Amino acid sequence: MITKMTKYTFLLLSSDTEAFLRDIQDLGVLDITRSRKPVDAASGKLYREAETLRKEIDVIERCDFSRDEQHHNLCAKLAAAEEAYAEKQHWGDVDPDKVKALRDAGCRLNYHTVPVKKFNPAWDQQYAIVEIDRDEKDVRFIRVDRASEGSNNFQVPRTHVAVESLGELATQISALKESVKRREEAMVVRKEEELPLIRQVYAAKAQELQRYLAQSSSTLVADDYISVLTGFAPTEEDARLQAALDQQSIYYVAEPAKAEDNPPILLKNNWFARNFETLTGMYGMPVYDEFDPTPVLAPFFLLFWSFCMGDAGYGLLLIALGLLLWKKEDFDLLGLKKHWRLVTTLGVGTFFVGILLGTFFGINLKEVSWIPEGLRNIMLVGKIELGGASYDLAMVAAIAIGVFHICLAMVIKAVGITKRAGFKEAISTWGWVILVVGGIIVAGLALTSVLDETATKIAVIAVGVLSFLGIFIFNKPGRNPLLNVGAGLWDSYQMATGILGDVLSYIRLYALGLAGGMLGAAFNDLGKMVLGDNPTWQWPFFLLIVLLGHGLNFAMSCLGAFVHPLRLTFVEYFKNSGYEGKGTQYDPLTNEIKE
After folding, report:
1. Rounded CA gap, 236 and 259, in Å?
2. Quick check: 30 and 231 in contact, CB under 8 A?
3. Is the distance from CB of 402 to CB of 573 less than 8 angstroms?
4. Residues 6+ apart with CB under 8 A from 86
5. C-alpha to C-alpha distance for 154 and 156, rounded to whole angstroms
6. DSSP string covering 4-32, please?
7. Cα–Cα distance between 361 and 311 in angstroms, integer?
8. Crossing angle, helix 294-309 and helix 507-531, to 10 degrees?
9. How far is Cα 431 from Cα 208, in angstroms, rounded to an integer?
10. What is the pLDDT of residues 296-310, one digit of tens each?
11. Whether the predicted pLDDT of 285 surpasses 50
12. pLDDT value of residue 227
């Protein structure tokens, strides 16, 4: 299954880009592509306008009042008024008439605050001091002196005390709180009413900048660059990623990815199919609106591999190898350690198919007396009569598997074209599906006597008519009928020659399994010849021949079982299923070190 992706678009100055990418790297979910354009006068102006709108959107969207300059100024004034009020409470209100009378007499009031430990009681004898307030920490007092004398001889700095009364300060605080509240309410209203419009303006400005950067061929040397970043992340990661982006005050455009965006592909399959995703990647990832071939590739590749190995004993060796790769940290054969699950899975399949083919380290299980009769009866060993000739059961099974595999590919191709381009574009493909798949089904039902002669005739006519109309008449609706007939004839030639060759390619499953089994049996016979009838000193040579022989046969079987199933998948199956594999693999920016 192809994971749904979300497309993210960013516009940043290059000076901000690297820091942004480092933060994104920590998240490890965003697959980034980037381009850089020099900043000229036009792009710089567009960028500044877009950046101003982006910051405004960020402030309004998050209701981050600390980023609003007017709100910030009001809050600063409110804090200063509250601080002045708190300080004024210690001093209390002073009669303004008396203060004026002292000033007229040439006297001045000096407000001082000193820690309790630093207050000198002797000051009462030297200066005109009146203690106003005292607490555990500080002493507050007023010193009266002549304005003409100055205050150089008194080293305690003066404390600023608001000239306004407590009542006036309280009125100021109340008014400022009301102003702050109105400003916050206005920002909430802007978020509800104006934000969509501002976003539209920003999007238009950003698109204008993108168009300018795309069309500009300027080669002027610039001090800075605009980075256009496009990223894709799995939709399931949207909440975590967008929360992190919001923390960075990065304005971004997030939208569901579409096929035309060519998003990177992240496959998401069950535990079994996940082991075979590496093989899909070897051919090429699907595009975004294509089917993920892995769920079909997985069981068939396992079946093909097992047929080509064809020996239950070799299956046990593969299981042991897979478990060894898993358990031994310092053991990595041919870089297979990270694929130990795949190796083990292939071993399990080889063991059971090897039992079905009746071979265990070159020994014919059909001839072993201790094998249960029920198991012996289901083995694909022996001949089957078809059309007056006899064929090996294993060969017939290989061809049957090939026919089913190709039919499945044709159905998947028809469904895929219908899904991506519509039914009209898939009429010809559905015609061939009806002809080939429908014909095989009808033939099978007739041979097994499920359909009587009359029903068989009706089914054959129906299949013939429907497939003829799809292949020759309506293969391209709206086109000249003669051209449709000509195209149908050409398709018929290609299908007739292609499908037959594709089906015969599956005989290699039988041939490789047969060759491996015969070679294993040959090494067993060589060992028996060396061993003789009364073995004594011959045992070491017997073991050497058997171990080396089966080791060589095992290695050759593994090579053949890897290459030929890949060919059947990449050529026969992918060709008939219409799979192209032109997608790009999801490769997020991350801190993880990749091997």
Report:
1. 18
2. yes
3. no
4. none
5. 6
6. PEEEEEEEEEHHHHHHHHHHHHHH---EE
7. 6
8. 30
9. 48
10. 999 999 999 999 998
11. yes
12. 67
Most confident segment among 15-19, 54-58, 240-244: 240-244
| Distance between CA atoms of residues 412 and 267, nearest Å | 18
Sorted by sequence, the CB contacts under 8 Å of residue 162 that are 6+ apart come out as 84, 85, 87, 88, 169
Q: What is the pLDDT of residues 412-461, one digit of tens each?
A: 999 988 888 888 888 888 888 888 888 888 888 888 888 888 888 988 99
Q: How would you class 385 by CB atoms within 10 Å of its CB: exposed for 0-12, middle for 13-18, buried for 19 or more?
A: exposed
Question: What is the token pair recorded at 160?
Answer: 């600023």
Dist. CA 320–CA 24, nearest whole Å: 42
Better-predicted residue by pLDDT, 40 or 401:
401
- 549 Cβ contact list (under 8 Å, min separation 6): 519, 520, 522, 523, 526, 527
**Does 112 score more than 80 pLDDT?**
yes
Q: What pLDDT was estimated at residue 215?
A: 47
CA neighbours closer than 13 Å in the CB half-sphere of residue 375 = 16
User: Is 477:514 a contact under the CB 8 Å cutoff?
Assistant: no
Give Cα separations from 513 to 380, 385, 546 (angstroms).
12, 21, 19
> What confidence score (pLDDT) does residue 213 get?
58
End-to-end CA distance of the chain: 25
Contacts of residue 301, Cβ cutoff 8 Å, sequence gap at least 6:
276, 279, 565, 566, 569
Rg (the chain; Cα; Å): 42
**pLDDT grade for 210, boundaries at 50, 70 and 90:** low
CB 202 within 8 A of CB 53: yes
Judged by average pLDDT, the poorest of 6-15, 148-157, 364-373, 527-536 is 148-157
Q: Is 64 exposed, middle or buried (0-12, 13-18, 19+ CB in 10 A)?
A: middle
- Which residues, in sequence order, are CB contacts of 1 under 8 Å at separation 6+? 267, 268, 269, 292, 295
- The torsion angle over the Cα atoms of residues 192, 197, 202 and 208, rounded to 10 degrees, is 160
Which pTM was predicted? 0.65
- Identity at 17, one-letter amino acid code: T
Name 519's Cβ contacts closer than 8 Å, sequence gap at least 6: 362, 549, 553, 556
Cβ atoms < 10 Å from Cβ of 354: 26
- How many whole angstroms from its chain centre is CA 460? 47
